[in-house]
Amino acid sequence: MQICYVLLKCFLEVEVDSINVKIIIDEWDPIALLSHAPDDEYHSEICVIEQLLKSTTDTNTLALGIYDVFTRAFGDDVFTKTQSECVVIAQKILRRCLGDGAIDTFSSHSQRL
Q: In the chain, how many domains are there?
């Protein structure tokens, strides 16, 4: 029974993370499409960001991943956000998905490695 609870809890946390990532990316609307595009316009990019989020809690790594995802998807002539703007989005995602304390803990740990 305990294993089922842990698995369910992990599944629900991943779902919440997915919702949070989508909310943040949609609010940012990096290429201003959502006013005239489907709600799932950034679905592919959000999926890649979620996968990256599972492997890192480092703000700069996540920010570079976000920048890379959108640059590859739309080209740098359409996606004109800066890497600094992606850092702000990465911070928002990490705070919303992990909380401030978790970010600090993971960042401190990764710096020691």
A: 1
CA distance 5 to 2: 5
Instruction: Say which residues have a Cβ less than 8 Å from residue 44's Cβ, sequence separation at least 6.
Output: 73
Best CA proximity match to 27, nearest among 16, 36, 35, 15:
35
Distance in angstroms (rounded) separating the CA atoms of residues 111 and 113: 6
Q: For residue range 6-30, list pLDDT tens digits in order.
A: 444 444 444 446 789 999 999 999 9
Both structure tokens of 102: 């978790």
What's the whole-model pTM score?
Answer: 0.75
CATH of the domain at 76: 1.10.340
Cα distance between residue 72 and residue 64, in whole Å: 12
Give a yes or no: residue 94 inside a domain. yes
Residue 11 lies in a domain: no
Let me know if residue 97 belongs to a domain: yes
Look up residue 74 and give its two tokens. 């739309």
User: At how many degrees (to 10) do helices 59-74 and 83-98 cross?
Assistant: 120
